[in-house]
Amino acid sequence: MTAALAVLAGLVTAAGVAPPAAAGVSPGQTLRASVRSDQAKADQPSSNPSVSGDGRYVVFSSRDQLDTAALPDNTPSSQIFVRDLVAKTVRLLTFSYQGEGINTKGSPASGESDLPVISGSGRSVAIETTATDLASVSTSTRMKVVLIDRDPDGDGAFDEPVGDAIALTWTQLDDRNSTNRAFLPSISTDGLTAVWEEQAASGSQTQSAIVMAQLAASTPGPPTISVRRSLVPAAPAGNFLLQAWAPAISGNGKRVVAKVLFVPVPNIALAPAPTIPAAAAAAAQSVGDDVQIVAFDVPTEPDASIAAVRLDVFPPTEPLSHTDISRLMLSFDGHKAVFVVSVLPCNTCPFEPRAFIADPDPDNDGAVGPDVAMDKLSRNNAAEPVTAVMPAISADGRYAAFVTDAPLTHNGVDRPATGCTFALSSGPVDFAKVAQVPPSCQVVVRDLVLDRQLDEAGQPRQPGELATPSVNTDCLGFQPGDTCASEGIAEVPALAGDGSVVAYATDAQDLITDDDNGEIDIYARRFTPTMKATPTPVDFGGVQVGDTVNAGTVITAVGFGPLKIQSVAVTGTGFALGSQACVPRGPLYALDPASNCAVSVDYKPAGDGPQSGTIDITPAFGDPVHIPVSGVGTPFPQPDPAFSAQPNPVDFGERLIFTDSSATVVTVTNTGTRVLTIAAVSLPPLLAPSAPGDYRITANTCAGAALEAGVSCAVTLVHQPQGPGSRPAVLQIDQSTPVGVQPHLVQLLGAGTTPSIEVNPAVVPVGRITTVLGTGFPPGHAVTIRMPGFPELTTVTPDAAGRFAKAVLVFPNSVPGSRPVEVTVDGTTPAVGDSENLLVVPGSLGPPDFLVRR
Predict the structure, then answer these.
(1) What is the spatial distance between Cα 265 and Cα 238, in angstroms, rounded to a whole number?
(2) Most buried residue among 51, 139, 479, 756 by CB atoms closer than 10 A?
């Protein structure tokens, strides 16, 4: 591993534990990201990857000259690169421009650059750097935090050519005139909010603090800094904040997790101070200190107190120890924080780190605490806690990864690990460059939603997904169908926002067949679930020429990770795509594991005789699925019953949530010549992942009916949207046939009105009243009006039209400034509502003097 990494020979080893029986990983692709532009292998190490929201872009640091179009690096140093896993390109992001026009080249930046983090779209990358020659960045050699814009003209195209270089801009986020070291950046999904750690010298001591910058988007041109300020969590009574470090921000930019050190100081004022005298600090630590992992919400006002809640307490009365170094991470909504702390010591190790996950806002009221929901993240296949470090979480909060050498934690075959020694690098400890990592350690990814569903059902969990599979078959006890774990040390995993890709650094040389460079490389494991179609093939049998018959199949995701379906099409003369729910929101719709979607096909024979075609389901990655469809066109009355359901689709339109639509009748008719039997009528919840429980059947004369030729039955439906936006679903009518059941699908369309509010007036003095006007809210359902961070709170019930007007008093002693007004429907998860800003200004003591000009 790198010199700054811990060199270990083991963490937790279960002697005598036999390898599991047949163990094979789910479908996926292992891709090396740290390769040169000409696809040659690197001969210098790389580290610290970060992945964009859709898994396309991986940024990382490397000492190799991967971008062969750039000028040579005369003093080799750590640079930042971005790899496009789709286009298979790699570009240098830390450089200065040399030359002009078509002769422009990038000259690798001076100094060291590291710890990159990428925004959800891949446009913005934040780094720490000592470079002195980046445009618009301070020439100081101290560590700085810089934001790189890969699309400065805002046209949506990244890495546009400028000669042999690319168009980039660099924005320094920390104060250019400061002498503080700034490092360890973390950015929001949109790249417009960033936090980082700053260290300032105070005598012989260094003091760490958390700083935040909020940026304003500018198109064309890079974003500009609108706010920069320190974030100081309030200390418990009798303590003050001595240090704060290792911050991470949620994807929505509204919540931060960090490590803090609160210390009691006898005979010293308890107010937080920007610097603490060395003598006071020494006295404080002699009394005792309390390192904590805390979460807090980003205040909307500069001077607002920042209430923090402690996360590392498990069970609720037992704080966990901090003898290891670990990064922190948050999901997009700030409801899932992952971190590592130490638990009970083991016999052979000085500590036993484990990964945990915590929700700082389990009551979903928009503010952290007072309670915290916490659980052990690192578990083996039997759900028992195991040793782990370096946890990561996807932005959607569904997938989590960690590094472990514990046996039986994944669906591969373990490699042996022995011993337990630790050797940290000498000198100052820099976060994320020093860590406790076991030998032959693997990256394991878990599906948190599936884990919870199985736990609630009382069923055993699925094995963790091995993200570091070997191409070799030499592991002990290997059997056909097994997958060996890699031989090497993997570290610093990073997940795509949707969990489709996990990237990591590793010295293993058995992940692909041609890895023989002997260096630490960046790899990405892309999960590519397969598809199962039921039924397959789809056989229409005999259909009279001129008639149209509908039949369908259900597509189920099989494997691990989200299945991204790019397109659905039907080929073959006489066959046409009917309704489908696999791509309801456009390309790259993600189908979660074990969930499914329906595709129907209309068959109208173009002539006599057999006809065939295919249903083509194309994923974003992996092989497409071709489902055979067939039928026989006949000029004679068809011998079998013909099914018809009208209307299809059924469109209920848009309406207020929690209100019933008028009843709509779907009429099923036997258009054939023999009896048609209906086995069942249902609303499969798995075929309505975005609208569970929206639709209900109020009358049904079809189930069990035997329809003579020309006879009809009816299914009556009502739509009550349970949330805003599009709410598609499927009505499934099963026809009995001599060979089984033939499902027929009727697409159901409906939408819930999105609530909205208006605050009038939007500017109000303290002690005065403003009115909140709401439209599109569910009638008769209680609605709560709050101003997060402020005491104003009231409720109102919308009228039959979904409207309300509620006067809200801004308390006389309230703090002036901009604040959000949030209106949510009580009892909705996720919360349904809207928010607007209200500007509260100081009250006037007398009438304004309009004659005085300022």
Answers:
(1) 8
(2) 51
